[in-house]
Amino acid sequence: MSTKSTPDSSPPQGSLSREESAGFNSQVINYIQRAAATGLYEIRGLGAKRHLPHFDDLLFLGASLSRYALEGYREKCSSKTILGTRFAKKPIELEIPITVAGMSFGALSANVKEALGRAATEMGTSTTTGDGGMTAEERQSSKTLVYQCLPSRYGFNPDDVRRADAIEIVIGQGAKPGGGGMLLGQKVSPRVAKMRTLPAGVDQRSACRHPDWTGPDDLAIKIKELREITDWEKPIYVKVGATRVFHDVKLAVHSGADVVVVDGMQGGTAATQVAFIEHVGIPTLAAVRQAVDALEDLNMKDQVQLIVSGGIRSGADVAKALAMGADAVAIGQGILIALGCNAESYVQKGAHLSALADYHKIGTAPGFCHHCQTGKCPVGVTTQDAILEQRLEPLVGAQRVRNYLKTLNMELTMIARACGKQDVHHLEREDLVAVTIEAAAMAGIPLAGTSWVPGRNGF
Amino acid sequence: MVSAVKATQGAVVFDLAVQPLRELNQFLHGDLTSIKTVAVENPDGAHSIAVGLNAPVQVDIKGHAGYYAAGMNQEATVVVHGNAGPGCAENMMSGRVEVKGFASGGAGASAHGGLLVIHGDAGLRCGISLKGGTIVVGGDVGSFSAFMAQAGTMVVCGDAGDGLGDSLYEAVIYVRGEVKSLGADARLEPMSAADLATVKQLLADAGLAHAASEFKRIASAKTLYHWNADSNQTY
Known about the structure:
The complex is a heterodimer.
Chain A: H1 26-38, E1 43-44, E2 58-60, E3 81-83, E4 92-94, E5 98-100, H2 110-123, E6 126-128, H3 136-141, E7 144-149, H4 158-163, E8 166-170, E9 182-183, H5 190-196, E10 204-205, H6 216-229, E11 236-241, H7 245-254, E12 259-263, E13 272-273, H8 274-279, H9 284-297, E14 305-309, H10 315-324, E15 328-331, H11 333-339, E16 345-348, E17 351-354, H12 356-361, H13 394-418, E18 432-434, H14 437-443
Parallel strand pairs in A: 5-15, 6-7, 7-8, 8-11, 11-12, 12-14, 14-15
Antiparallel strand pairs in A: 1-13, 2-18, 3-4, 9-10, 16-17
Chain B: E1 6-8, E2 11-15, H1 21-28, E3 37-41, E4 58-61, E5 77-80, E6 96-99, E7 115-118, E8 131-137, E9 151-156, E10 172-175, E11 186-189, H2 193-206, E12 216-220
Parallel strand pairs in B: 2-3, 3-4, 4-5, 5-6, 6-7, 7-8, 8-9, 9-10
Antiparallel strand pairs in B: 1-2, 10-12, 11-12
């Protein structure tokens, strides 16, 4: 190799002539150029990518002399979870406090819905429908299926209400509190279109408000209607995207919810405007704290159960959510990644085949892909394409999701035992400390090594 | 429970002044094979009367109903002999719901099938999110009616308020009177012979005597079906 420098007219890296602006950096320039070229906001899938205070900023205080640990491999630690004890005649009983979040048929393929149902059933947990109605595949494969009642009411019908194990009234989602569903034309296949009563191929923008009720007083009446239709058997969940969580959770409880689901801004989406994903809502960490505060303020903790979602990835995340006061969590993106989202390959009849060329075709690469909105998922997870959807074999997907859920629950019970708990629901705030001031303030947890909770006690 | 019910020759009477609503709805969700009609006395604006029915029974609500009367109806015929509150026949799948008086907001919201007849006026957002049901209104409809209506038919014998048919998909609206304003992407279209036949039939089904020729057709211009963007330019 020649050591002689090649003549180059551009100034060297690091020189003042190539100083990048903090405000107008290359990403911002790219954003402006794109906006100017298209006249349309950017739409993508998955959740917020910005850095946010999160469960990573909390740590557990394992048992020592002042607390008595349980044998990690030998002593029992229960993870049984019961949801919907307030009014429903038939509450939901789960083996683990980790549920599969609502994701629509349309956003996901029928194969994926079947895989989720199989995995959840094997693990004794629930799956949830989404903004596209209930498919026969997911009902058949899911022992416990939560049926969402969304503003769009796509495919919503009384037969499925009666077939469901619980009803979740969706007010909003963490990725876009205040926004309705979105599914671009390329994913509105004939089957999806038929289920949603839409012309095939339209760019579908769902309503953001329910058609038959407006405020919390109406919601109370709506919930009673659903209870009457289901003869008061099924738990009714109310799901809110995290914004004014303290007030929203109180109103959901006043409206008669059995279970409140709070979805933080790291929650995923199949397709949403980037400005929405990154700039609307509050982090899950702050949302859990406010939700628990609301339930405690009403003296309804343990009477109304709390499910937390939005960027939960690991057993440690689950344990921290539970310690902060959640009764269960719901996972969407973590499940998709378990299925193969952002993997380099997909499995067909036992062989791993490369998906790299197809990532390249949609302008991305494994590890960075958020192109759910295109419907061209290289690994067959978020697609309606007849060929691509075959890339996710239900049995392979089910095994991966089962393994993932199993790992999370093992991590959860391991941490609980280390904290001296025989039941994961015995984890408590006192078991946690924060490692950043931001997390300490948001979570209401003292900064590690101190008794300081910013904002409490006047400073 | 049934002991509290007076049943003679398939006719049953519930009196909501003395019997709880829960008892009525539980009865209506049971085996109704020998039941032809159910009368609901003293409804007094109770919410969720006769919701979630799934049998070809006739229910007569002898007075005013509150929210969600006949919600999610399948197969049954429910007649409100009075006014109905918000969300009457919401998400109806089949059957027939008839309101002799006025209906409040969101009547027939997201109805997938069946026929809703409102003899008086209907409030705001009548037929919002309609998904295949049919609504015939003898009087006027309020603003934002047929908002995002996806499929089905609405016949309005009186006037319509602001924003009629905003973001319509494939649903079609027929209006006899004045339309205060059309919503985004809704447009007037000429009445075809098929339209005239449809309106004539629906008026007959509803028992309303108007000439089909007096109605105009409103449907989607379909300009919102796909995003418009000059997306071919690049830097």
